[in-house]
Protein 1
Amino acid sequence: MNPKVVAIIPAGGSGRRMQSRNPKQYLLLDGKPVLVHTLLRLQQHSLIDEILLVVPEQDRSFVVENIEKPYRLTKIREVISGGKERQDSVRNGLARVGDDCDIIVVHDGVRPFVAEETLSQVIGAALRFGAAIAGVPVTDTVKQSDGAGNISRTLNREALWLAQTPQAFGRRILQEAYLKAAEEDFHGTDDASLVEHLGIPVKLIPGSYRNIKITTPDDLVLAGAFLKQD
Ligand SMILES: Nc1ccn([C@@H]2O[C@H](COP(=O)(O)OP(=O)(O)OP(=O)(O)O)[C@@H](O)[C@H]2O)c(=O)n1
Ligand SMILES: C[C@](O)(CO)[C@H](O)COP(=O)(O)O
């Protein structure tokens, strides 16, 4: 039997660094909200069975009426209220995952350029090894600051990667990681950090430099250029 794959899409942020009136997940790219671009990529992926979409609590009905229904996002099983931090939003999504799920894929609602191939490879590696994320090698030289405006050391770039989403995990592994994080008040900026905290190895799958997270106004300019090329 095929494994059941559920995608949790955290889109519950307010986009402070974008400094726009509307949260960045609703800003238009080529006439469609950023979040719709992202969701269509997951909707169209043959390995993804269900989507749990997490949005700001006050936006749930807006998202159902203006995103889920008009764009026929039929894989969305539930639109869930987000929490204060990204980790809280993913936790709310995780609470709605059924026991029949084998693999959970977490993917930021604001990474609209995720490639089909990246999703396939990350899901495949999670099936084989239990935990896998997409990432790209660092291309700049990385300095550690001493916190007072000086460099304390230069890190070895050979070993450094930028973590992206998608990040995929066996269901029980991610549930256990979130449980331990709650018990120990552990906070991470991605889901893999929580699994690493469990002591479980996580595979790094080379992704794409195009899989940007829309974070600042400059990212929207870049996204517009990528769309023109597609
Ligand atoms: N409480 C939160 C915060 C973030 N996210 C989601 O997690 C993803 C990555 O977060 P980020 O880029 O930091 O989004 P924001 O928190 O909205 O941005 P900022 O930090 O600039 O406020 C986004 O899809 C965002 O909507 C979420 O679901 N719930
Ligand atoms: C999960 C993530 O996209 C991996 O790079 C990133 O850590 C999210 O960070 P943010 O500060 O919530 O944007």
Protein 2
Amino acid sequence: MASRGSILITGGAGYIGSHCAKAVAEAGFLPVVYDNLSTGHRNFVQWGPLVTGDVADHDRITATIREHNALAVMHFAAFSAVGESVADPQKYYSNNVAGTLGLLRGMREAGCDRLVFSSTGAVYGNAGRDPIPESAAGPTVNPYGRSKYMIEQMLADYRAAYQFKSVCLRYFNACGADASGTIGELRDPETHLIPRALMALLGHVPDFAIFGEDYETPDGTAVRDYIHVDDLASAHIAALELLLKGDAGGVFNLGTGTGYSVREVLDAIRAETGEAVPSVVRERRAGDPPILVADPSKSESGLGFKASRSDLGHIIRSAWAWHQKAHPRRR
Ligand SMILES: NC(=O)c1ccc[n+]([C@@H]2O[C@H](COP(=O)([O-])OP(=O)(O)OC[C@H]3O[C@@H](n4cnc5c(N)ncnc54)[C@H](O)[C@@H]3O)[C@@H](O)[C@H]2O)c1
Ligand SMILES: O=c1ccn([C@@H]2O[C@H](COP(=O)(O)OP(=O)(O)O[C@H]3O[C@H](CO)[C@H](O)[C@H](O)[C@H]3O)[C@@H](O)[C@H]2O)c(=O)[nH]1
């Protein structure tokens, strides 16, 4: 067992959770992954044991926390496809909200009261502000964002009533991959811009499209704040250390403060790979805000975290290395 104790990582077989499990191990803890493998990958669990289970199963959560004497929980387990959440909200409220209630019940029964929670820039809806401070949350514009915002509010109530400590990390656009080439972004179907564009270059996405070029942005395409998954992992360690010191926690943006348009991302992909992504322009995707860029100042002052590995070229190079391994070229 690692010297500093165990951390339970729900969703640790997924994209962001596996990168954070590695960082947890590097920080001297044992990452105990708890995952039902609904979208995750068994071979992404490399730095500690895998417990196969659902977060809604509070008895199993309690038993797992007790068995490993977990000091805290990092909670990544969720469904996160915005379009699917609009088509099937029950799936999202059930897995994300009810699932988290199961986890919280299990944690309380086991006497574990520290949680780092994966929230999202989707809590800002159509924020209409750039950059966006934490105080601008709501109203949300899709069930996925609402499910995450509900959980944040539950955690605030738990803090007030039970002194339950939590840090909600609102990620903007997670991207990139670990340099080892053994973990990365791997979903089916893939909906995110950078992996879809790279998979199009490799012949795995035949119908890549730019969703809307009539936004009120400099080049008409939507603007996002892209943050490398290794930076997200560092922020999780900072949040964990804060809770372990006894801090009650809070809510923090995780972004860079710099936005790139869809066309700027495609230009950067061409510059890094030497290949132009074959694309057409389609109508806007339902529920997409024009601009989402984080104000990172609160995470800098409150967590001591500043993104340092989120240069767009580095993001694309690391993602490209991963996708070439994960999706061998078809054409
Ligand atoms: N990828 C992004 O850009 C992004 C942005 C903001 C927030 N997030 C949030 O970060 C977290 C991780 O996202 P990801 O991109 O790594 O997704 P992912 O699908 O790769 O990982 C989610 C993991 O959770 C597991 N899981 C799902 N439901 C579960 C349940 N009920 N019980 C146990 N395990 C369960 C899955 O098997 C998977 O391993 C999610 O909570 C997501 O909402 C992601
Ligand atoms: O094939 C594609 C895929 C995406 N896009 C566009 O690229 C931008 C980024 O889209 P992503 O799907 O990569 O990411 P989102 O901004 O929609 O969502 C991500 O970031 C959000 C917060 O910023 C939430 O956290 C959410 O969970 C997470 O998936 C959007 O304008 C989208 O319309 C395309 O043009 N073509």
Protein 3
Amino acid sequence: MPDQCNAVVLDNVRLRLGARDFLFDCRIPKGTITAVAGPSGSGKSTLLNLIAGFETPDHGRLSIEGEDVRGVLPSDRPVSLIFQDNNLFAHLDLFTNVGLGINPGLHLGAKEREMVSTALERVGLKGFERRRPSTLSGGERQRVAFARALVRRKPVLLLDEPFAALDPGSRSAMADLLQALHRETRNTVVIITHDADEVARLAEHVLFVDRGRISFSGPVEVFLQRRDIEAVRAFLGG
Ligand SMILES: Nc1ncnc2c1ncn2[C@@H]1O[C@H](COP(=O)(O)OP(=O)(O)OP(=O)(O)O)[C@@H](O)[C@H]1O
């Protein structure tokens, strides 16, 4: 596949962390939802941290949206992030938490304030603007994190197990919201998940990480049939 079809390209990216070494050679197709799956400790978060810029490759090339991002600070990369614990500031209200996605200095003009209100409305939190994160449920807090990612308007959205702390009902509501937002924005979504059903339901493309390497990369329909790779078989449940 030509590289302009890929939002993220890792070319023989190597990294050593303590006793563990990682080698990632993979592509993430532009505009897709790509699931990153694999056993615990295999290196899924490390892969996301490399893309986000929280880890620096020892060797290899990493480009995002066609740009070599070696030496580019996390805040200057064309990515936004959502983690399991959603990183909201407890002492700030929701409007302010979302506004920080646009401008860390919080100098918001009328247009930016409108963007924050629209994003909160889009994730179903209209009227919650002055509430603090502690007054919300886990699912609602994740919606705020989504709103903040929406106002950032970055082409790549990285999610590290964003629904792991939620009950099954909220998980599936958030998966629906993610899909709806993806249909609107058509950005590239990369989501770590431990849940085979979530992979089947959400993803178009799958990267399977095993012992610091990519052991499968391809369309979800092919992934779901791959019973010949032992770790994939275990992940899919027999
Ligand atoms: N800074 C570090 N120094 C040493 N080892 C590290 C460091 N960061 C991660 N590791 C190790 O690298 C391995 C991969 O970690 P990583 O968090 O990427 O795995 P994961 O697939 O996301 O796991 P999980 O599904 O359990 O969250 C683990 O064994 C972890 O202990």
